[in-house]
Amino acid sequence: MKIPRGDLVRSRVVDDPGTTLATALDRRLTGYAVFEPQDAVLLGDETRGVLTFEAGIPTLAYCTDTDRGGADALNDLVGPGPYSVDLYQLDDADLAEAHEAEDLRVPPGLPAERLAANRDLVTRTREAAPDERLGDGDDDAVTAFLADEAGIEAIREQAREEARARAEEWGLTDALDD
Amino acid sequence: MVEAFAVASGKGGTGKTTSTLALGMALAEEHDVTVVDADTGMANLLFHAGLDDAPVTLHDLLIEGAAVAVDDAVYERFGMKVVPCGTELAAFRAADPERLRDVVAELAADTDVLLLDSPAALGSKSAVLPVVLADRTVIVLQPTIPALSDGLKVQEYARSYGTETAGTLFNRVRDESGIERVAEQAERYFGGETLGVIPESDAARAARTAGEPLLAHAPDAPASQAFREVAKRLDVRDGASESGDVADRFRSAVVPEEV
Fold this sequence. Notes:
The structure holds 2 protein chains of 2 kinds. By secondary structure, chain A is an alpha+beta fold. Chain A has helices spanning 17-26, 38-43, 71-77, 92-96, 110-116, 119-128, 139-147, 149-170; strands at 7-14, 31-37, 49-54, 57-63, 68-69, 83-89. Chain A has 2 domains: 7-134, no CATH class; 138-173. In chain A, strands 1-6-2-3-4-5 form a 6-stranded antiparallel sheet. In chain A, a hairpin with a 4-residue loop joins strand 4 (57-63) and strand 5. Chain A is elongated and about 65 Å long. The termini of chain A are far apart. The relative contact order of chain A is 0.16. The model of chain A has no long low-confidence stretch (mean pLDDT 87). In chain B, helix 1 (16-27) packs across helix 11 and helix 5 (99-108) runs antiparallel to helix 12. By secondary structure, chain B is an alpha/beta fold. Chain B has helices at residues 16-27, 45-48, 58-62, 89-94, 99-108, 125-133, 145-160, 179-187, 202-210, 214-217, 222-233, 243-254; strands at 3-8, 33-37, 75-77, 80-83, 113-117, 136-141, 164-173, 193-199. In chain B, strands 3-4-2-5-1-6-7-8 form an 8-stranded mixed sheet, with helices on both faces. Chain A binds chain B through residues 109, 119, 122-123, 126-127, 131, 134-137, 139, 141-143, 145-147, 152, 155-156, 159-160, 162-164, 166-167, 170-172, 174-177, and chain B through 13, 122, 124-125, 128, 132, 143-146, 148-149, 152-153, 155-157, 159-162, 173-175, 177-179, 181-182, 185-186, 188-189, 253-256.
């Protein structure tokens, strides 16, 4: 993956890669982040993961150590943390060529799912992603979502409470099924 | 005999209106079907059914004191009875959502299957009433986290009002390779069964542009065939035996009888 060097936005050590993903999303950043697991630093390894963003939405993932891209690259990067992360900004045009590499693409929500296990961030990222990025490509993320029984039960419980509270507000309490 | 289904999704863009009309047309081969655009805030069924110019719509029936009969808003189209809703914001504001109950009761007295195209929202009384009034829901999903999550919310809202899920369908599916696994997992959380998987279809977009339901515009398209399969799997139950009882059922569905 060839990407021009961008302007450094921030450089820090994070326990949770979700922090970086959220920063990129909130800033609608176009550019890339370089993740370096700290255990790799200690061991003198060269494991680095690069994740590019288009207007805050993760687009490509690549792992320098394993030379793998896409979801595989994310898997290579998963670890206990912390990570040393540099976040860079670029112009859209600088990434156009790199972003043609289909084999390196990741579904928008997958980095938040894999690296941070942060469902809220997954949802937030997908909501901000353009429609054409929301194919069915991230079956893995959907499968992980549906496998999380406690998470699903939490959504249902919250909806039940909300339904009852609003029924009262709208004068529909009598229609509730007891 | 009548069973009222709310076709619901919670999330916009799942193709709920396309689904409602497709199911309506498929079910109309065996049943007397009435389709109602119960999305009174963001109506769009009229565009899908070529009823843009309908002089009387559901909005007119929901305005207190309006001198129109329910029949005036019923249009025979594509082998079904179609009740469109208008798109004017002023009419929506003037509409009394509670009156939907009476409209549904009256329509129910004269049909076998009532399909309520429900709003993609849960934030207001008018948005929730269709799932309150319906006997069961058909939940339109897509294999994405937001669509599944919103589908679960709609299901819980409906269940809070005693409205069980008849089944789900996955619509606008672009890649069918992973859908089986997703559908199987989703079945653990949704009531009823997975009624079908509908492939993403250019024909659906073309149908909307042409102002025709998908099954009329492209009856042989794979998506049309898939919708027919969904309709076959949806077991329509007998409601009350006499029409009078049916009307009462809906009238008492929200407001208990006064003493």
